[in-house]
Specification:
- The chain starts with 12 loop residues before the first helix and ends in an 8-residue tail after the last strand.
- By secondary structure, it is α/β, with parallel strands linked by helices.
- Strand 5 and strand 6 form a beta hairpin.
- The strands form 5 sheets. Strands 1, 2, 3, 4, 5, 6, 17 and 18 form an 8-stranded mixed sheet that branches. Strands 7-16-8-9-12 form a 5-stranded parallel sheet, covered by helices on one side. Strands 13-14-15 form a 3-stranded antiparallel sheet, with no helix packed on it.
- The protein is built from 19 helices and 20 strands.
Length: about 600
């Protein structure tokens, strides 16, 4: 390597590693990762209350359907719409929320928007003949778009809202799934789809004294506009003008909520445990002539272009051209017979330092106070935490009403009057927990939130206690006629644009169900050999990043600093970030070949439109 090839001038590998290790050590506290179980702790159950839609009493539903779907968020809406396109009429969705949207129903805090380009994140734009208003759409626009899809395909009237599933059980005698809910409902379904999403479990840290705080406290996923004023489309939080607000968290939720809070409140304290790597988002209105250059299939093409760029595959043109493709492309390991694995790793580490230095220099250029700027700088590898993109967060610290409280060990205690960090008590009128959700790598059984009981009384949780075993990450032996929407750490693939994976999964499941009906297949189950072979393939291509993650600052991506908890059985097809294109082609071939690896029981040929 010549000096002109150096992607990171001034890179001192040993010095950088020491600094990163020191910063990691500050944050590896015994209480890290300890959270409240909101489904079991009555004292904190109020944090889950729906502040957006009134609860309406109703009589229990007794129902017989072709497909029951657990969830009413992005994944559920897309697969429901695809099923309706395939001609399936008797569908029932079930969700704890009071409306359509999933994470976009719950996340209505000021400033919320997607961090993946809206033209590839918002699903079914062509089918809906809709163009997002901005490159990165605000949360309420995404929620309303999902609701529009649900309305168009008749899903809203078929959804049980404010309803939690208590049990899904396969009953052999009737060859049906029986789904029972906390409102006395009993839904009998020929087929069951789990579409519970990947960010559906609100994370509330267990900080001593929380229950004694005498002010107002809520999570960003249950924003209290009655207390703050404003609304999802009104960032002016007029009722906070005489209030001191503490924001606990410094990730994606916090960086979006802090600027409007800083503009509205008397004062805002931002309690930061680990700073995020924040690059420019560059949000802007959609060009007036954007739709003039589109052709049929444009969104699929754009999704695939983005996924290819993120995997380091050649693309003629980067259609998205944003922070994701700019930085991730620079950190894709180079290939070539002239480089050893050690040389490749060293080159990537050096490039990584250059990327992180750009982030740190950006902070210096924006934040006026050098002390505050230093506290906001991230000292870890780029892939240790999910990167963030924002244009107003860093400038907010030039606002005299916004104070950074850099506390690597976290908030130590909540008192009746405020929060204690670094041994100092900060008096507060309101605490906003901007602490996000349990990680995408959370076990599926926990995300599902209820017992899923298959043949012989075994549950998914019991079967997968030592790691997943499935076919394609979508079906598993002993649970006939059950589909699980693909997700990270679930033997499918991992993508930055979750919507792309959702569309692939929804297209596949809808096409599979349509073909099952066409062929008159009443029951399917996975053969033992098929799921064993698939699981072995996942394990064999597992990309072991545990050593890398062990050197990372603790985050939700490395089990809060304990990556040894990662299980190769919960990996991705293709390893690492996953081979999304190979996975899609494999599923299509599998359907064409009439479901190899399934044990099938035929029944009467069915018309799903009946």
């Amino acid at each position: 390597m010549t000096p002109s090839d150096n992607p990171a001038p001034g890179f001192d590998r040993d010095g950088v590693r020491r600094r990163y290790a020191q910063e990691r050590a500050k944050r590896m506290t015994p209480s890290r990762g300890v959270i409240h179980d909101l489904r079991r702790e009555e004292a904190f159950a109020g944090y889950l209350k729906d502040p957006f839609t009134p609860f309406i009493e109703r009589k229990p539903v007794r129902d017989e359907v072709d497909v029951a779907i657990v969830g009413a968020g992005l994944a559920a809406v897309v697969v429901g719409a695809k099923l309706r396109q395939a001609g399936v009429r008797r569908i029932r969705l079930i969700d704890k929320a009071g409306g359509i949207g999933g994470t976009w129903y719950w996340n209505r805090y000021p400033g919320v928007m997607c961090d993946v380009e809206s033209y590839i994140y918002m699903p079914m734009l062509e089918e809906m003949n809709y163009i997002p208003t901005t490159k990165y759409a605000p949360g309420d626009e995404i929620r309303r778009h999902l609701e529009s899809i649900a309305i168009k395909y008749g899903l809203v009237k078929d959804t049980l809202f404010h309803t939690g599933v208590e049990e899904s059980r396969w009953v052999e005698a009737g060859q049906r799934w029986i789904v029972r809910t906390d409102r006395g409902d009993e839904v009998r379904a020929r087929r069951l789809i789990m579409a519970t999403g990947i960010l559906n479990l609100m994370k509330l840290p267990a900080i001593p004294g929380m229950e004694h705080f005498q002010g107002r406290a809520f999570h960003t996923a249950r924003w209290d506009y009655e207390y703050t004023g404003g609304g999802p489309n009104d960032p002016h939080l007029a009722k906070l003008t005489d209030k001191v607000v503490g924001v606990i968290g410094a990730g994606a939720s916090a960086i979006q909520a802090v600027p409007p809070l800083g503009e509205s409140a008397k004062h805002v304290y931002v309690f930061q445990r680990t700073p995020s790597a924040i690059s420019e988002r560059g949000n802007r209105p959609t060009d007036a002539d954007f739709s003039k250059h589109l052709h049929p299939g444009w969104q699929k093409e754009r999704m695939e272009n983005f996924s290819a760029a993120m995997l380091g595959l050649p693309v003629k043109r980067d259609l998205v051209d944003d922070g994701w493709t700019k930085y991730q492309a620079r950190l894709i390991p180079p290939s070539g017979p002239e480089m050893t694995p050690e040389e490749i790793a060293a080159r990537v580490e050096q490039s990584d330092y250059g990327v992180m230095e750009e982030h740190r220099k950006r902070i210096e250029a924006i934040v006026a106070d050098p002390r505050v700027a230093e506290g906001l700088k991230p000292y870890y590898r780029y892939f240790c935490k999910r990167p963030c993109f924002h244009d107003e967060y860093l400038p907010a610290f030039n606002n005299p009403k916004v104070t950074l409280v850099d506390c690597p060990a976290g908030v130590e205690q909540i008192t009746p009057r405020g929060a204690v960090a670094n041994g100092v008590e900060y008096p507060l009128d309101c605490i906003v927990y901007a602490t996000g959700f349990e990680a995408e790598i959370t076990r599926f059984a926990r995300r599902a939130g209820h017992p899923i009981i298959g043949r012989g009384g075994i549950t998914i949780e019991e079967k997968w206690k030592d790691g997943m075993i499935s076919l394609h990450g979508l079906t598993t032996r002993g649970f006939p006629n059950l589909f699980i929407m693909p997700a990270p750490s679930q033997q499918s693939v991992t993508t930055v644009n979750y919507t792309h994976l959702t569309v692939i999964g929804a297209d596949h499941i809808a096409a599979t169900i349509a073909k099952l009906d066409e062929l008159g297949i009443a029951v399917f189950d996975v053969s033992e050999a098929a799921e064993r072979a698939w699981t072995e393939a996942i394990v064999n291509c597992f990309r072991d990043t545990r050593d890398f993650m062990a050197a990372c600052t603790p985050s939700r991506l490395n089990y809060e600093g304990h990556p040894e908890a990662a299980n190769p059985r919960n990996g991705s097809y293709g390893g690492g970030r996953g081979d999304v294109f190979g996975y899609q082609e494999l599923l299509a071939k599998w359907r064409r070949d009439d479901f190899p690896g399934w044990e099938i029981v035929k029944g009467e040929r069915l018309d799903p439109r009946d």
